[in-house]
Design brief:
seven-stranded mixed sheet, globular, 12 helices, about 270 residues, Rossmann fold, single chain, 7 strands, binds S-adenosylmethionine, alpha/beta
């Protein structure tokens, strides 16, 4: 990492990667950081305060990266996206991201989003609910959507455990992977995660310097597929990772949440 350079962290979280970038580009590298979740943003802002003018943080969706860089009249040397949600949101947000907790079925990363997971389960018609589950690659998507439509007539869905109970009843299983994929399908719909990713990727070649790099870490196949296809389809991007980089056994031992991570790197040509 070089000095005097401009970096973008599109998913600051609590600022782990951002501070590593700021350290590595010290003393003059500038970081533009984006974090959509209000609480994560506040914590990161406090943590990164010590870098002073070198860090510019925005409590915004990363789809605004292009607009903001263009407004500032800068191009980036490197852009990082570490997709998905953080342990902080899973464990501490009380917004119903985790099937292991009993919380309202909310799942909004940012509270300005109008739709919640509860709205989807209680108000989407059968066709649209099926689409959500199919898009999220939920097994038996249509039949499960039909089951939910019947179930909510008796009692609307309110909490994460209402959904967990319905999953157990329908699938006769409470496997973690199954619960995770269903929760994830709702989270993707609430936050428009795949649409946001597609949009921001399209913008990247316009805001990178020549030889600037894009690094994307994804944790699930739907996102990784979008990244892979984008890298292949835009001639302004040279793929530097023929196969995605995955964590070593040792890293997985240290950090089990990293086990499904895939990192792809592209270079602006
Ligand atoms: C896996 S965490 C990133 C962790 C971070 N790299 C760190 O070192 O702490 C992903 C973060 O991206 C945020 N996020 C998700 N979608 C976003 C979006 N469209 N725009 C900006 N931030 C987003 C989430 O709120 C979450 O904090």
């Amino acid at each position: 990492m070089k000095e005097n350079k401009i970096y973008v962290d599109g998913t600051v979280g609590l600022g782990g990667h951002s501070s590593a970038i700021l350290e590595a580009s010290s003393p003059s590298g500038i970081l533009y950081g984006f974090e959509w979740n209000e609480d994560s943003f506040r914590i990161a802002k406090e943590r990164l305060k010590r870098y002073g003018e070198r860090v510019k943080l925005f409590n915004k969706n990363f789809i605004f990266i292009k607009e903001i860089l263009q407004r500032e009249g800068v191009l980036a040397d490197g852009i990082l996206l570490d997709l998905g949600i953080s342990s902080f949101l899973l464990e501490g947000s009380k917004r119903g991201f985790s099937f292991q907790k009993e919380e309202p079925l909310d799942m909004r990363i940012n509270l300005s989003i109008e739709l919640t997971a509860k709205d989807i389960l209680n108000n989407y018609d059968f066709m649209n609910l099926s689409k959500v589950f199919k898009k999220g690659e939920v097994p038996k998507a249509e039949k499960f959507a039909k089951f939910i439509c019947e179930k909510r007539k008796k009692k609307p869905f309110e909490t994460t455990q209402d959904l967990v109970k319905a999953i157990k009843e329908f699938y006769k299983s409470s496997k973690k992977d199954l619960l995770a994929v269903i929760f994830q399908s709702l989270r993707i719909e609430v936050n428009k995660e795949l649409e946001n990713l597609e949009k921001v990727l399209r913008d990247f070649p316009d805001i990178l310097k020549l030889s600037g790099r894009i690094v994307i870490i994804s944790f699930q196949s739907l996102e990784d597929r979008i990244v892979k296809n984008f890298f292949k389809s835009d001639p302004r991007i040279k793929v530097l990772t023929k196969k995605p980089i995955t964590p070593s056994e040792e890293e997985i031992k240290r950090n089990p949440r990293a086990r499904s991570a895939k990192m792809r790197v592209g270079e602006r040509v």
